[in-house]
Amino acid sequence: KQIILLPGDGIGKEIMEAAKAILNTIASEYGHRFTFHQHAIGGDAYEQCGTPLPEDTVKACQSADAILLGAVGDKKYDSLPPHLRPEKGLLGIRKALELYANLRPIKGFTPLMHASPLKESVINGSDILIVRELTGGLYFGKPRERRENGLAAIDTLYYHRSEIERIVERGFQSAQLRNKYLTSVDKANVLESSRMWREIVNKKSKEFPEVTVDHLLVDAAAMKLVTNPNSFDVIVTENLFGDILSDEASVLTGSLGMLPSASLRSDGVGLYEPVHGSAPDIAGKGIANPLAMILSAAMMLRHSFQMIEEADAIELAVNAALDQGYYTPDLDIPNGKQIGTKEMTEVVIENLT
Amino acid sequence: KQIILLPGDGIGKEIMEAAKAILNTIASEYGHRFTFHQHAIGGDAYEQCGTPLPEDTVKACQSADAILLGAVGDKKYDSLPPHLRPEKGLLGIRKALELYANLRPIKGFTPLMHASPLKESVINGSDILIVRELTGGLYFGKPRERRENGLAAIDTLYYHRSEIERIVERGFQSAQLRNKYLTSVDKANVLESSRMWREIVNKKSKEFPEVTVDHLLVDAAAMKLVTNPNSFDVIVTENLFGDILSDEASVLTGSLGMLPSASLRSDGVGLYEPVHGSAPDIAGKGIANPLAMILSAAMMLRHSFQMIEEADAIELAVNAALDQGYYTPDLDIPNGKQIGTKEMTEVVIENLT
Ligand SMILES: CC(C)[C@H](C(=O)O)[C@@H](O)C(=O)O
Ligand SMILES: CC(C)[C@H](C(=O)O)[C@@H](O)C(=O)O
């Protein structure tokens, strides 16, 4: 299996090393061969090649079986023109590879739940999968420009039926494999694109008679995530709503540093990255939490390589590390032991072997 | 003072009666004259006149000093074509009167804080004012239509500089009168309109040297509202982001049924409405919580009539009612006394006189 590594900015390099070490362990334990090729993206690529997404990186990704990404971004690039900023690398690779389905599982870890901003009675039992459309909508629609001699600005929310159909189908499929309850989020009382979205969901629901569907307006969804997170199973929504709601949801369990994500194409090729950012303030100090990156590697094994047993093993090993009381400085486990990136990686490896 | 009453749907009528009773008490206690004219809007107007926003209602509002609105909406109108739905009445009146500045104060009430989904340590001390742009952006931009023979849909996020300037100015003014800390929320790493927004905020900040400004991406803001609500003072943002974030914020204190809002034009004319919806399931039962509507009337006195003392008096009377242990069925005060809409209104009146 050809795996492209895009460490990117900030703590990206350190946590990528961790994921690589875990994958090497899996390879030798289960008799697989993973070949790694590292490429530049984001601010790192801008420094090296003057662009956040070099041609070379796109080409390598296009012939890969899967891609692991660390993180991109740093405040120091804020003054660059938009097309040179680190985020453009991420948006560009999503679009170039048509990674239209972003999956973000959000589930707490027992030893960390005390850090949730929510009361125990509210957060307990919540286990959500957010399925976000990732290559359409306001993020890519045209025109997006200044108008009227710079006196106005315009962005365009465009969706083709086929773009909505494939992500909605993915939402139903995910719900079918989980608790068979799908919440479709839109703003159908205001947006034309949301009305089309809702029609497509209603039509598609006939193909999945076992899945219960609810429609929820995005403002109501933003409320319910806080008041009743455990009432959700799978949420499917368009790009911008998914961005906002998945970030809101990511802090509910109190351990943002633990959350992985997958961005998939229809043929199963995918890009896997932690939900957290590049944390430039702690980069290079050896204290970054590698677990979200490691869990992203597990998602890769599960979704792109169908290595279910191997993915399960990594997830169990991560859970075991926390149960043993090990945590990195972004977390806290009462009476546990604080350790750094490398030690945490070693603990997970020990639990794996 | 000419006040237009738009009770609308569901519990709108009952809570409007409550607000009227309070205003009559204020009139006689402080020697004012309020004249009320009632008009139809939303589903109620659709039933009576076949449209959610009759010409007659618009005209009356245009010559009013202020408008009180109960609530609009009911699931039973979901199958109507978009231009006949209740929400269209609300969107229409906002646009017709150019009520571009939506103010939503979010602050908990001590006797109700136990109902917050957040831990006490997280929610304590939070006191936020959200200033939302209300007549631009994706809600009104054109084109908004089906394309390519119905195979695609498009909505348009359009902002003219002047629309952004006036709401940003309002944000700075509000911050100046409060704790002098303004958080401007955008998605400048993706949207052209957000980049213009950010430029305007930076420029405008020179006119308010005492106000500290932070820029926050909308996804990060959705996180921070949950993890650190007490780190905010005033938030200023565009229409759709404001819709989502203000609803998210509205549940943090655990008493959505208590939150008022103001939608203002530049000359001070305004429309005042509770943040909660029309709650058709409990309509007509006499158990609706009138306090958000009453507090909306207080906001009217403060913002449209400069009757500061009178507004303060209402707010104190509402606080006193809760401190005395009175609550409606949507709330809960341990060892308190559950009462209905009318009794609650009477308790507030007693506290006023
Ligand atoms: C970096 C940014 C463009 C990106 C997005 O908004 O999609 C990020 O917030 C995410 O959610 O992956
Ligand atoms: C009813 C709806 C159109 C409206 C909006 O989205 O503005 C409501 O959610 C609000 O926030 O007042």
From TrEMBL, chains A, B:
Belongs to the isocitrate and isopropylmalate dehydrogenases family. LeuB type 1 subfamily. Catalyzes the oxidation of 3-carboxy-2-hydroxy-4-methylpentanoate (3-isopropylmalate) to 3-carboxy-4-methyl-2-oxopentanoate. The product decarboxylates to 4-methyl-2 oxopentanoate. It is found in: Cytoplasm. Substrate binds at residues 94, 104, 132, 219. Its EC number is 1.1.1.85. Residues 2-348 form the Isopropylmalate dehydrogenase-like domain. Pfam families: Iso_dh. Its cofactor is Mn(2+); Mg(2+). InterPro entries: IsoCit/isopropylmalate_DH_CS, IsoPropMal-DH-like_dom, Isopropylmalate_DH. NAD(+) binds at residues 277-289. This is 3-isopropylmalate dehydrogenase. GO terms for molecular function: 3-isopropylmalate dehydrogenase activity. The record marks 139, 187 as: Important for catalysis. It comes from the Bacteria. Homodimer. Pathway: Amino-acid biosynthesis; L-leucine biosynthesis; L-leucine from 3-methyl-2-oxobutanoate: step 3/4. Mg(2+) binds at residues 219, 243, 247. Keywords: Amino-acid biosynthesis, Branched-chain amino acid biosynthesis, Cytoplasm, Leucine biosynthesis, Magnesium, Manganese, Metal-binding, NAD, Oxidoreductase. Binds 1 Mg(2+) or Mn(2+) ion per subunit. SUPFAM superfamilies: Isocitrate/Isopropylmalate dehydrogenase-like (SSF53659). NCBIfam families: leuB. It catalyses: (2R,3S)-3-isopropylmalate + NAD(+) = 4-methyl-2-oxopentanoate + CO2 + NADH.
